[in-house]
Amino acid sequence: MTAIVRTLDEILIAPAHPGRGATQEYFLNMGPQHPIAHGSLRVILLLDGETIRKVIPVPGYVHRGIEKMCEHLNYRQIIHLTDRMDYLSALMNNWAVARTVEKAAGIEINDRIESIRTIMAELQRIQSHALWWGVLGMDLGAFTAFLYSFRDREIIGEIFEETIGARLTMNYIQPGGVMYDITPDFTAKVKKVLAYMKRMVEEYDTLLSGNVILQERLRGVGILSEKRAVSLGCTGPVLRAAGLAYDLRKVEPYGAYEKAQFDVVVGTTGDCWDRYYVRIEEMRQSIRIIEQLIDDIPAGPTMVTKFNTKIKLPVGRYYNHVETARGVLGVFIYSDGGDKPYRLHFRSPSFNNMWAITKIAPGWRIADMIAIQSSLDLVIPDIDR
Amino acid sequence: MGLVTDRLPGLLEPMPGGSILITSVDAIINWSRANSLWPLAFGTKCCAIEMLMATGAPHQDMARFGAEVARQTPRQADLMVIAGAIVKKMAPRMRLLYEQMAQPRYVIATGSCAISGGPFMYNSYTIVRGADEIVPVDVYVPGCPPRPEAFFWGLLALQKLIKSGESIRHPGIRKKPVLAAMPQGITADEIKQQLRTLLEKENTIDIENEANNRSWAQKVDQWTQKI
């Protein structure tokens, strides 16, 4: 046997023919069990070295068939399944179905119900964004952020526990009203929490936003242009970070949003940093909305229909939507005149936002994939349903 | 102050120049296993927020029970917390994760989805009705989702199970699974109080005083006289 020893020049200088030394593309499987997935989303990456060439998301690992199940349940029973779609904004999911059914059945809602719904939804938006902030920090290696955000999540959660009786799956907003009235000291407690959260949002900002590592990892990474965001159907903070001021609370106001003054937060470039800062700023706007509404909650009943009456929708197709913490949640109901929907479809925000990674991740390194996917704030059960 | 820990399984024997601990190897192995569970960060649904994230957070600190080291890879974990619904597409992956975990391995099924399918039990064409169809479950924690305190209740049940579990002569012995449901009508404050006493008061041993305890010395004297 003979062994030919190559000289240093042979090793270092690029080979003459293209086959040798050329890089090879390969597939990497990310998920379904992966800490970044926050659930079980599988993403197949086509890599060239460390550079991402192509992203193929494979959803369906938590698909429970909620839409099909809804066909067997009446309109009040559907509400409890919507909690389990996007569990971080469960109240807003409830609201989307309740609003569609109310509009279709012609149920008039009084101002008290609208006010309570709006306050609760905004409290949950703060909670959801705070949790996202902590989890983004954890994904990028800053564990402290997680500890701070979960401390404050519990403080808002105490209000939910006292009024609603649940911490996560609320089942609170029903067609025709809300399940329970607010407690007598609700106003005082919410004010206390708001005063606390106001300081805490500033603390979040000073704790993490100015961090050099975070800025380096988020600024200019994963740019999603306004045109592309619209063509992909992205909504919520992802679309607003791209520069389009589309917020259903402002565009077609529902609930008590018309009474409140607030700004639609808009980014400039559509990179991960804009998506980060839009959410920080939205927490401040949500606090502003609640502060305006909390003082004068109108009097009246909290349920305008009888509790156990069957709601029947006239034959037809109905669509309505609300702005959840992640974007536009649309509910489409095809009714055949009965008390159950013939077909029910959810247009969930996370599903459309997920496809943004296929367009913005290619070209970036695999470490940037973590920042990109985390900044989109995907909730996997909302994608799969 | 003594050690804020579980009661050490064994006797403290006073000796000139210090004291030694007498115990059986089984007892001390099971004791250390029960108090250093490393959970796998495996969450599929809403329960993951409550079971794996909120319990690790400062408000309910899982580190008090020695189970806070959540690992992302199954090879470093020995406790699988099934938090959420398991669907047919996920089931083979979950089985694979379970088989990759180091032995001895334990499974806690939290939430009604993991126990029976929960709210998706009827009319769903994808759900696996109970995680125990795929992996052997040790402790069931009911709730939708369970409170973090309820999860701790289940964790303590698992610790008891491990301590009375396998021995060197009978390896791989498994106790029957238990349902760690909290008593009805119990309030969150009562649970917190119970957990606090369990952690701080009853299970504190003061090594210096225990060694100098006269009753212990008498016992040891009797024991030596018998020999």
Describe this structure in words.
The complex is a heterodimer of chains A (385) and B (227). Chain A has a domain at 75-310: Cytochrome-c3 Hydrogenase, chain B. In chain A, 46% of the residues lie in helices and 12% in strands. Chain A is built from 16 helices and eight strands. Chain A has helices at residues 8-12, 66-70, 78-82, 90-105, 111-139, 143-163, 186-209, 212-218, 226-232, 237-241, 248-251, 272-294, 349-354, 356-360, 366-376, 380-384, and strands at residues 25-30, 42-48, 51-58, 173-174, 177-178, 316-323, 328-335, 341-347. In chain A, the strands form three sheets. A three-stranded antiparallel sheet of chain A has the order 1-2-3. A three-stranded antiparallel sheet of chain A has the order 6-7-8. In chain A, strand 7 (328-335) and strand 8 form a beta hairpin. In chain A, helix 7 packs antiparallel against helix 12. Chain A is globular and about 95 Å long. Chain B is of the alpha/beta class and 227 residues long. Chain B has helices spanning 25-34, 47-54, 91-100, 111-116, 148-163, 188-202, 207-212, 214-226, and strands spanning 3-4, 11-15, 18-22, 39-40, 79-83, 106-110, 139-141, 178-179, 204-205. Chain B has a five-stranded parallel sheet with strand order 4-5-6-7-8. In chain B, strand 6 (106-110), helix 4 (111-116) and strand 7 form a beta-alpha-beta unit. The longest helix of chain B has 16 residues, at 148-163. The two termini of chain B are 35 Å apart. Mean pLDDT of chain B is 76; it is low at 1-5. The interface between A and B is medium-sized, with 36 and 34 residues.
